[in-house]
């Protein structure tokens, strides 16, 4: 099977030739890690053992618009930067402390109701990017193409944490207004891509914002399930396309609600103690309709040894892979600017063990 055939078979909850193995590094495309020598052995191993994702991010623009926005960015005396966006209803401001990863947020865009008015006043001009690169990528067999979008609830990352907690109780109307408009704009983006043949995977980030302790099950139902169901229905109305939803956090009590959305795959299914998902339990509850993608903590790979990594991979495959519908994946991709020799060897070993234990019929461990 090609990588695309293998991954799509798993996403249909069927059994491919072997368990797909993800590490979220692409050895065939230029990226921040491409010229970092410490990543060289890992990229070589990815080319040999991993199922590569060609990950294309839809260039949605600020609040999903291609409208030209007047923006300012200025350095403050304390080393922070203030970003300003001028909208028809006033200014939106954020503060961040820059670092090599892009900066830590000190003040988010949305703090009070007036900020919501500013956000919603931003005109919607649909983004119409050149799709040639992603369409050409689909013609190659060394990867599977994935189009990545922000989930509507991703807007929660723009709202002050205390404000968000209060508004889920006192001002749900403001949250509804923002999410309804974001959802409308994302549906337009998706329609453009679907009409032009982008696919076969659509990937969404963000639902962890609506999980406890940040929000309640009622919030998850209204702010995630209601909106994401519409996105998934649109994607599935174009035959051959599949959806993966990415969510960190404690998702075990919400597995059936993710399944109800209609997603084909659920990632990352974090195990205890950081998460609460036990793979065998998830397989029993939703494995017949949702491909499970996970669930090895990245740090357990990076800080482990060959024996512990082999045990983790063998256990994950034994619990998640019977009858198909499983993709082996860490719960995060490598994020270090450079890798120690030990971490590099561990990542290579993870990939090799995925191949060793992932061939169907599965070996007994």
What layout of secondary structure does this protein have?
Blueprint: H1 3-11, H2 40-49, E1 53-57, E2 70-75, E3 81-87, E4 90-97, E5 104-107, H3 113-121, H4 132-137, E6 144-150, H5 161-170, H6 172-195, E7 201-205, H7 217-236, E8 242-247, H8 255-261, E9 265-268, H9 279-286, E10 291-296, H10 298-302, H11 306-320, E11 326-330, H12 341-358
Parallel strand pairs: 1-6, 6-7, 7-8, 8-9, 9-10, 10-11
Antiparallel strand pairs: 2-3, 3-4, 4-5
Helix pairs in contact: 2-12, 3-6, 5-6, 6-7, 7-8, 11-12
- Give the overall shape: globular
Q: Show unreliable segments.
A: none
Strand order of the largest sheet: 1-6-7-8-9-10-11
Q: Report the CATH C-level class of the largest domain.
A: Alpha Beta
Q: Figure out the total of helices.
A: 12
| Main sheet characteristics | 7 strands, parallel
Number of domains: 2
Helix content: 25-40%
What does this structure look like?
The protein is of the alpha/beta class. It has two domains: 3-65 and 123-358, TIM Barrel, CATH 3.20.20.210; 68-107. It has twelve helices and eleven strands. The protein has helices at residues 3-11, 40-49, 113-121, 132-137, 161-170, 172-195, 217-236, 255-261, 279-286, 298-302, 306-320, 341-358; strands spanning 53-57, 70-75, 81-87, 90-97, 104-107, 144-150, 201-205, 242-247, 265-268, 291-296, 326-330. The protein has a seven-stranded parallel beta sheet. The longest helix is centred in the middle third of the chain and has 24 residues, at 172-195.
